[in-house]
Design brief:
Helix content is 75%, strand content 0%. The chain has 5 helices and no strands. It has helices spanning 2-23, 28-56, 66-82, 88-105, 113-117. The chain is globular, with a radius of gyration of 15 Å. InterPro entries: 6PGD_dom2 (IPR013328), RedAm-like_C (IPR048666).
C-alpha cells in the first residue's frame, strides 16, 4: 500500500504541476524535460536523506527549514488561485506544514512532516 500511496501522490503532484504550467499556456510536453531534471537532480537525491531522518526521528533543516518551505507552499497556493487551478493539494501540504511548525519544527527539514502524518491530532 505504501508504494501505491507513493505512486498516486507523486502522480498527483506531477498532474498538479501540469495544471499550473498549462494554465500558464505552456504545453505539458514542453514542461516534461524540466520535470525530469527536477526529479533526477532535486527529488531523487533527497529521498535517502529523508528516509534517514525519519529513521533517526531527527530532521535538521540544514539550510532548507520547514518555515522556508511553508512560505514557498503559500506561493504555490497563490499561483494556483491566480491560474484558477484547484488548490486543495497544496493547501493540504500548507496545513500539514503549519501543524509541524506549531509542533516546533519550523527550523527542521521538510521531512519533519512525518511527525504530523504519523501522529495526527484532531
Amino acid at each position: 500500500m505504501a508504494l501505491l500511496g507513493l505512486m498516486w501522490t507523486t502522480w498527483a503532484g506531477f498532474i498538479h504541476a501540469l495544471a499550473l504550467v498549462t494554465g500558464g499556456k505552456v504545453e505539458a510536453a514542453e514542461f516534461l524535460p524540466h520535470a525530469r531534471t527536477w526529479f533526477d537532480h532535486v527529488i531523487a537525491p533527497e529521498v535517502p536523506r529523508i528516509a534517514g531522518q525519519v529513521d533517526r526521528r531527527r530532521h535538521p533543516g540544514d539550510g532548507s527549514a520547514l518555515a522556508m518551505q511553508a512560505a514557498a507552499i503559500d506561493h504555490l497556493v497563490e499561483a494556483g488561485r491566480a491560474l484558477k487551478v484547484d488548490t486543495e493539494l497544496p493547501e493540504y501540504l500548507q496545513d500539514r506544514a503549519r501543524q509541524a511548525i506549531e509542533r516546533g519544527h519550523a527550523d527542521d527539514s521538510f521531512a519533519s512532516l512525518f511527525e504530523v502524518l504519523s501522529a495526527p491530532t484532531d
